[in-house]
Task: structure prediction
Amino acid sequence: MGATAVRLRILREVHRDLDACTACKKMHGPVVHGPPVLSGVFLLGQAPGPHEGKLMRPFAWTAGKTLFKWFAENLGVPEAKFRDTVYMAAVARCFPGKAKGGGDRKPDPEEIGRCKPFLVREVAAIEPDLILCVGQLAISEVLGDASKKKKLDELVGKQFQATYHGRTVDVIPLPHPSGASPWHRIEPGKTLLTRALRLVGAHTAWIAATRD
Result:
């Protein structure tokens, strides 16, 4: 069995273990993950929304439409191709439920910790070179505590390097495409988002992953 086949087998084993996980009692299953794509590009979101579990794929609802529109309009990669060529994961893999004030509840540190071993195994199997962090929680999980003190204006539109679960990767932060925040629709967010997408499009891992 070749190295690629071994990595794919390992990734499928991770998915089987994810599917069987019921560790977080406040979470609403089922577990959501994308297909076992071996890609140099790894997208990390926050957590599934209320509809993703029904459709069994990440970013399957309104926020996803916005996210995929960014890549289609700016980089010429439509949703179907994106899903086929980019590995999609999240800090937490089940819907956390609604927050008291409305909106989706952020996963708590214990829930994030229970999902982390799966991400460790995914990164080891996939060996990504570029991580696209969608939203501030994902950004802080990859770039560390220092990024928590920074606003999106200081993070989006730039490329960073980090060590994520033992692998040195390039990191391009993106805003969350949720309709709850207007940041990506107004300045300076619009300009910074365009700048970030240009960085994605110029990255060798993206070019290799999306090459026809």
Summary: Strands lie at 41-45, 87-90, 130-134, 160-164, 167-174. The mean pLDDT is 96. The first strand starts at residue 41 and ends at 45. Residues 101 and 180 are 12 Å apart (CA to CA).
